[in-house]
Design a protein that fits this description.
It contains five helices and nine strands; from the N terminus they run H-H-E-E-E-E-E-H-H-E-E-E-E-H. The protein has 256 residues and is of the alpha+beta class. The chain has one domain. Strands 1-2-3-4-5-9-8-7-6 form a nine-stranded mixed sheet, with helices on both faces. The radius of gyration is 19 Å and the shape is globular. The two termini are 22 Å apart.
Length: 256
């Protein structure tokens, strides 16, 4: 079971040990979810199941989502961890992805932990789903099913005029299909004080999703700034990826 005393690297490695059991359970529940969707009279439809891993005692929510009748037999599917950290209920997702720590370093595989607060899910429901009454699990299932691709965006003053008061930890957001996810973020690992980032060891990246805002509720200035940051970030990732692939230096894997 996840505890407050673990590092996020340990949390990630802990959850990875449950991966095969969760994968099996997703396949196990899929026919049941399809039967439920076949009986549904309104869409989108969502079905979720609680599962506690026998060995780790971690509690997962396995979900299925059908946008319309055409998706009944091939619903979107996934899972997330339901846990309390520092006695606060959160939902947690995890994967590893490429990260470039500094200009003189190659892209490297890094553990990434995404923490979603209850406040975040409430805002997603209020501002986008507009479903009442609010249900924590149902809202989360719909969010994760609909927004499976996250584009990192640097938050500028044109996006949030108060960004400076949040410091460096508050300068990253994620653009998803339904809007913008604002976050606090930090790196976990071994860092040197001499300013030479080439020696730093990155164990994990942590993102705490704090609130959600649909782009249709933003000003034209904010939307233009988001579009600009989106494409600049995409271009930067593409250039780095293609250069390292061409030079034979691209090696996306966890090194430790």
């Amino acid at each position: 079971m996840i505890t407050d005393f673990e590092t996020y690297k340990e949390v990630y490695d802990h959850l990875e040990k449950d991966h095969e059991k969760i994968k099996y359970r997703v396949d196990y529940y899929l026919p049941k979810a399809i039967k439920e969707f076949q009986k549904a009279t309104t869409f989108p439809a969502c079905k979720w199941y609680e599962y506690e891993c026998p060995k780790s005692k971690n509690k997962y929510i396995i979900f299925f989502y059908s946008e319309n009748k055409n998706q009944i037999s091939v619903p979107r599917k996934g899972c997330f961890l339901d846990v309390k950290i520092e006695n606060k209920p959160i939902f947690l997702k995890w994967w590893w992805d490429g990260y470039k720590h500094s200009k003189d370093r190659n892209i490297e595989g890094v553990r990434q932990i995404f923490i979603y607060t209850k406040h975040f899910m409430k805002r997603y429901n209020q501002r986008f789903l507009k479903n009442k009454p609010f249900d924590f699990y149902d809202t989360a299932c719909r969010f994760f099913a609909r927004n499976d691709i996250l584009m990192p965006i640097e938050v500028t003053e044109d996006i949030n005029e108060n960004v400076e008061k949040y410091g460096d930890e508050g300068k990253r957001a994620f653009r998803v299909k339904d809007g913008m996810c604002f976050s606090e973020s930090w790196l976990e690992g071994l860092f040197y004080n001499d300013g030479n980032k080439s020696k730093d060891i990155i164990d994990a990246m942590v993102f705490v999703m704090t609130t959600f805002v649909p782009e249709f509720q933003m000003t034209d200035k904010q939307r233009l700034a988001i579009e600009k940051e989106h494409w600049e970030k995409w271009h930067s990732i593409y250039i780095s990826f293609m250069k390292e692939a061409k030079d034979g230096e691209l090696m996306l894997r966890l090194n430790h």
